[in-house]
Amino acid sequence: LVTMKDVAKDAGVSVATVSRYINKSGYTSKEAQQKIKDSIEKLGYFPNEVARSLFKQSSKIIGLLIPDIRNPFFNALVKAVEDYASSKGYLIVLADISESSKKLDQYAKLFSQYHISGLLVATGELEDFNFEKSLPIVYLDRFMPTSDDSINNDNYHGGHLIAQHINQTKADRILVVQGPKRFQGSVDRFNGVIDHLSKHLNVKTDTIDSYNVDEMSTECQRLLDEYQQVDTIICPNDMMAVELMIECKKRQIDVPEAIQIVGYDGIAIGEYTSPSLTTVVQPVYTMGKKAAQLLIDRIENKSLKQNKTILKPTLAIRESTRR
User: Fold this and answer.
1) Which of 266, 268, 267, 297 lies closest to 120, judged by CA?
2) How far apart are CA 92 and CA 247, in angstroms?
3) Distance of alpha carbon 201 from alpha carbon 104, whole angstroms
4) Which of 222, 200, 198 is CA-nearest to residue 209?
5) Quick one: which H or E segment has residue 132?
6) Which residues share a beta bridge with 203?
7) Spatial distance between the Cα atoms of 315 and 191, rounded to a whole number of angstroms
8) Rounded average pLDDT per 10-residue block, the chain, 323 residues
9) End-to-end CA distance of the chain, in Å?
10) Residue (of 213, 198, 207) closest to 177 by Cα position
11) How far apart are CA 308 and CA 63, in angstroms?
12) Contact 264/238 with Cβ under 8 angstroms?
């Protein structure tokens, strides 16, 4: 492992001079700069970013809070964030909190120790997170009314798109499942559907309290048990919709002839299920990239104006609904 001391010895300068050059913390002559640069390239030296962050009380590390890495939607979001951040020389520390206040506390301490430069928040479970108040934060896919910066999906419009499609199918008895009410996105999706379904349709509603993947199977069994007469089920996300199709197959319920199923998110697996899933497709890669770009711009230029971006989703009509 090449150290700063090795670079100093090879360049014929002091360790303090190498430190000033690397950290841009003081004057070094042009001659010394060239010697140090040549030695770094020759020896293959890489600065210890953790040590530098502790010394400078800042870093090129970004924290990313997500609710559940098992949901493929967040896999795609993480990839988009990491692609852009790495192109700008930033590292991502991924925090999968799994709706746990204990994990929030652990990550709060970790982020503080490593002096992260900024925070991306894709979860609404933030009440107990003791982050540094001056830390730049961008919220994504979890609308926070008090946040300065956010990149979100127009969930109400997404719900509207679902309703428009269902109005054109042979639907009669519809169940609309709302996601956790503490998330504004869940409320907006639900309202977008309810407000635009045809008034002559028989519409029932239900609510789930969590998006936890472990609870989806049980919730789907409950819904099919309690609402045996419905011919259409509109789900709050794709994970529930996919699990619901699996449960229907177990019960020999034909999708879409007996029950139409609609999801929300646009995760890739929906294209490959049998039948393929009709769903609202969020522009997840664009969302992640724009969030990372906004946060890094905020980190490097604190004078930026407040930014709240709303992206428009689209509807992918596939085989789980009747044409």
Assistant:
1) 297
2) 37
3) 43
4) 222
5) none
6) 174
7) 17
8) 88 91 85 92 76 57 91 94 95 84 77 83 67 79 69 96 96 96 92 96 96 92 98 98 97 98 97 97 96 93 81 98 91
9) 63
10) 207
11) 20
12) yes
Total residues belonging to the chain: 323
- Segment (H or E) for 314: strand 314-316
Rounded distance, CA 120 to CA 99, Å?
A: 16
Please count the helices (runs of H) and the strands (runs of E) in the chain.
Answer: 11, 12
Tokens of 201: 């349709």
pLDDT reported for residue 201: 95
CB atoms within 10 A of CB 165: 18
d(CA 284, CA 108): 26
Nearest CA-CA partner of 280 in 244, 248, 220, 234:
234
Average pLDDT, the chain: 89
Query: Across 101-230, where does the E strand assignment appear?
Result: 118-121, 137-140, 149-153, 173-178, 202-207
Nearest 5°: CA angle at 56, between 139 and 295?
Answer: 20
3-class SS at 48? coil
Geometric angle at alpha carbon 110, from 49 and 211, rounded to 5°: 120
Amino acid in the structure at residue 303: S
| Separation of alpha carbons 121 and 221, rounded Å | 32
Rounded CA gap, 92 and 49, in Å?
Answer: 13
Q: pTM of the predicted model, to two decimals?
A: 0.81
Question: Distance between CA atoms of 159 and 37, rounded to whole angstroms?
Answer: 56
Q: How far is CA 288 from CA 62, 110, 135, 266, 291, in A?
A: 13, 23, 19, 14, 5
262 phi/psi in degrees, rounded to 5: -125, 135
